[in-house]
Amino acid sequence: MYELMNKDVPVLRFSYDPSRHSVSELAMILNAEYAPPSIVGPGMSISTRSVAYWWEHRALPASRDQLDRLVSAIGVECGRELLEHNMGLSLSDRYWVRPHGSGLRWADVNFFDNAFSDELGALTLIPGSPTRDGGDIDLMSPNSSVGGNVPKKWVIGPDGTRWLLKTGNKTARQDVYNEVVATDLHRRALGSGEYVPYLLVGSDDAAFCACPNFLGEDEELVPACDLLLKHSREEGFGTLGSVLGALGESGLDPGYLRECLAKVFSLDYLMANADRHTGNFGLVRDCVTLEYKRFAPIYDTGFSLWCDSYSLSRPGDYSYRPRPFTGGPSESPERQLRLFDQYEWLPDVDLEGWRDAAMEILSADPYLPESRLHAIGRGIDMNIDGFRRHVDRMARLFPLNAPSWMEEPSIAPPARGGNSEAAPSPQRQPHIAPTDRPERRRPHR
Known about the structure:
Layout: E1 2-6, E2 9-17, E3 22-29, H1 48-58, H2 67-74, H3 79-86, E4 95-99, H4 106-109, H5 119-125, E5 152-156, E6 162-166, H6 174-189, E7 199-201, E8 208-212, E9 219-223, H7 224-228, H8 240-248, H9 254-271, E10 282-286, E11 292-295, H10 333-337, H11 351-362, H12 370-397
Antiparallel strand pairs: 1-2, 1-4, 2-3, 5-6, 6-8, 7-8, 9-10, 10-11
């Protein structure tokens, strides 16, 4: 018999099948209010199925790049077996599992305060890394439960800060550099606590991006998907309204939440982020008081700037289907951007300066051809133009929601009988970049 814990509060007891590496039966609910939000249904109900689902999705995902190679090198059957060796501990929340009656305490085992080995991390970051000769690998590590598809690992910095290192996907490493490009954009447009800063470490074949853990004392990250799960059978599930409704159950101000989503998806539009799903945005909750404190800072923007496009030689190559909203907004980035009309939060951002910074950052990628770098620059120019058109259009329609620095919209209202959407979509049109761009160079590290 095992206990699911929230720090030192027992949440429930369950039996476990080690042959299948899965939860077999929910035995007793002790403190449902302290449970992970994803396992709690209507009326604070919890089922064996929901606990088993939570355990399965806490493990390294089956979609993780080179997962088969990783588990083979370690000598385990699957990602769930790794959780058995680290008590299900994570650096994203305060949940863990202990044998019933063991007397183990949070202070003795958690990775926020206790050191952990890098042996497993070396393999989760670079699955082909050689294993230690002689003896077993120390699997008591948060790297048994770090989510996402790209290889990554947690490390401890000199001052004790927990840092997450990520490498690129199996076909290219542009996403490593994209995180740094996104950080430059976020720094220009947002406050310091509204985004997670990424920096580039290493170079060439050993280039990674790194970011600090953004959680404070007793805080946990609650992804939007965890709050949406119990609404999955409701009409309208997957729309912006359903997402706002689920987030609003936290008690946070609806206007604040809508503004936060506007920031996420407006800046994602500029970054051409094709992978903003409900698992990589959400809320921060105090796991002791159970109070939702704020919208989580923006993180995980690497799968962007057309890094998965084979070619960027034609206008249609810049097209992609954005996530996570269903229906019309999923058809194009422009349609998704139209969901948001409030831009009081938007400062007078030097987007051309960001564009040039992006080119400098990306130029350090040794696998990025010069021609593709210029093509990405043209795409960024198109997105800047499209974003400005959208903000101007919203300022015409909703003047009270316009940025304070915008004296008047720069786009004239359509003539009688005209169509405000007559201009071709900037996401779809070729654009000739200025010829006076600075010479490509590697930034100083």
